[in-house]
Design brief:
- The complex is a heterodimer of chains A (195) and B (587).
- With 195 residues, chain A is an alpha+beta fold.
- In chain A, strands 5, 6, 7, 8 and 9 form a five-stranded antiparallel sheet that branches.
- In chain A, a hairpin with a 3-residue loop joins strand 6 and strand 7.
- In chain A, helix 3 runs antiparallel to helix 4.
- By secondary structure, chain B is of the alpha/beta class.
- Helix content of chain B is 37%, strand content 16%.
- In chain B, helix 2 packs parallel to helix 7 and helix 11 runs parallel beside helix 14.
- The longest helix of chain B is centred in the first third of the chain and has 16 residues.
- The chains are: A alpha+beta (195), B alpha/beta (587).
- At the A-B interface, helix 1, helix 2, strand 4 and helix 5 of A face helix 7 and strand 8 of B.
Amino acid sequence: MQRTVATRTIIAHVEDKPGVLNRIASLFRRRGFNIVSLTVGRTAELGVSRLTLVLDADDDTARRIEANLYKLVNVLLVEDVTFAPSVARELALIKVRAGAETRPRVLQICEVFGARVIDLTAHIVTVELTATHDKIDDLVGVLAADGVIEMVRTGVVAMARGERPQIPEPRPALSPHEAHGPDDICESHESQGAA
Amino acid sequence: MEAVMSATGGGGTRRLTGAAILWEALASEGVEVVFGYPGGAIMPAYDAMLAYGDRIRHVLVRHEQGAAHMADGYARASGKVGVALATSGPGATNLVTGIATAMMDSVPTVFITGQVASSLLGSDAFQETDVTGVTLPITKHNYLVTRVDEIAPTIREAFFLARSGRPGPVLVDICKDAQQAIGTWCAPTDPPRLPGYRPSQHAPDELLDRAAYLIDHAERPLVLAGHGVVKSGAGELLRALVEKADVPVASTLLGLGGFPASHPLALGMMGMHGEAWVNHAIQEADLLIALGMRFDDRVTGRLASYAPRARKIHVEIDRSEVNKNVKIDVALLDDVGRVLGALVPRVAARRRARWTARIDELKGDSSVRDIQGLPDQGRLYAAHVIHDLWRLTEGKALVVTDVGQHQMWEAQYYKHDHPRKLLTSGGLGTMGFALPAAIGARFACPDDDIWVIAGDGGFQMTACELSTAAQEGLKINVAIINNGYLGMVRQWQQFFYGGRYAATPMRSPDFVKLAEAHGLSGMHVRRRAEVEGAVRAAQATAGTVVIDFHVEQEDSVYPMVPSGADLTEMIRRPQPNSPLVESAEDP
């Protein structure tokens, strides 16, 4: 078994319930797994959220991370897409110093990278770039000479190619935010009892 | 709707307070006893409890930690789910040590805590603590319940999670307003639907065949029997396997009793204070068959040199344990009993005369150092007390140990032939565990001869529960191994800290008078000749009895593998002209 450390991309499909992110963050903190980036958001399925985790780990550690994620009751499915055909993107907002003299060059660089200007003042240009993690690193590297004032990145979101994997259907939510009448839970039991 | 509900009886659908729904839900899970302590946020549940007194017994503890250990002891002794109840804030935080104890040893338990009203959550209200946050890393799962209609399904899930797969503690924190509100109770019929929960898997045939092949072709195989053998009730299947394939069995601390100690293939305990021949056998083995154990650092010693010649088969229900500490060749991810059931017909019947002869040779070398063979010279040694206790109880007692030297002596000298008859805090090493855990075990095993073996230090951590035993009229025999020190720490100070006894000498109260203050009885024992009479007297007494055994103060547990050392680098009981530390070449 190889023990080479690689940057892994792991997708976790989880029940959209309060505290789930805390459980995952707590697991990584406690077991000493070091997260490079973590993104969370809703999915097309009601009640399912999805996380994309990027971290550095060898094969054994990656397996243990997957096994530990599955021990969390709210985790529905885990995919390690590191070596699977997949697409991955990250969004960055980059604020660069660009006075009258340097602005044309900055704008030209941004155009080459496919970054879009979203704000412009007399001395500052703000651009957005949606690209792979490495390509954003490259743009930031080139712009560094002009002076990057501020930058924010979302972290990677990833998706395997092809059909969506079969995800166990989440439970109906019982939280106060959901539109569940107080008697709904027992209606089904009553009908079962009668049958 | 109301008419339908009033028409249906106990098993049907009724309108009840959340507090009453809680007790209905507990009763429907088969709960017969709850250990707890009331307080503001759990008062509605306590008020509703009075109507359920004929179905569920409540035991009032003296400290919530005691309630947690009682639930734990009940669960370990019975195999059923133990339940503890506490109020919010300090009540809940006092449970924490007990919850962590149950987590480390995978004990099926459900903890129910009151919480401030849902409208006050997050406001630092009186006795508010974020208990689900506090217990997140020390529970298998936990819940915050804010609405009355979540109570019944949550209790259902909590019990299912606690007892299935790798068992563990589940905490349910219930807001006071949810306990007070009126909701609908209907007896649950289906198991809860937990779509992401995978309690176990199935070991595929090709891996079972591979494991059988490794066993058949090993010359020096060894079974490492862990807590999973006990939990899975797999003792008979283990016996069938090892008798057919002629494989000796070493046990972890929590595995003791899973395989009969009197069986010719039983070797005894492995690890830091394991038998010398067991540790040597592990290092010489060419195959380890690990059953429901997790290669804890107290078992492996230095990982880099652990069992260097052995392939490893790991039978384990929790996939995250595989390859955590030790590299595994064949992992069988399922319940120990199910895997053994599939392995027994697959392995070949054979004998291993050379291997068993080699182990006998290792044993013979060690037995001459055994304190059992040493004269007492008028002194009272803890090992002698425990050996005598084993003899006088015919090895049939349910023994609950605390943590420290006495715990290791018990593991070495009390030979358990039956599962669930040794309860001890192995993973967390929680001092103060023994007395409350024994009280819990009493409800699981009403007819057993129950003995607490505790040190003078650990006993004082939860000695307040003597009062619980007295109030409930429970019969527990308590043997305090009193050496006037926090003995295990003192031993480490002697071996590794230049004999500087920092904060380990301890002056204790007169334990006999302490027992008498609770309306119980006690005895002092200072000489070996008095042991038998005291044990017999305790057994003949109706109530709880405390025996204070005043043992040798500076005796140590041998052998000892220093933390992080190779398993063969053992400190052995000093003999004239023998080195303190022996190497692998020694025997």
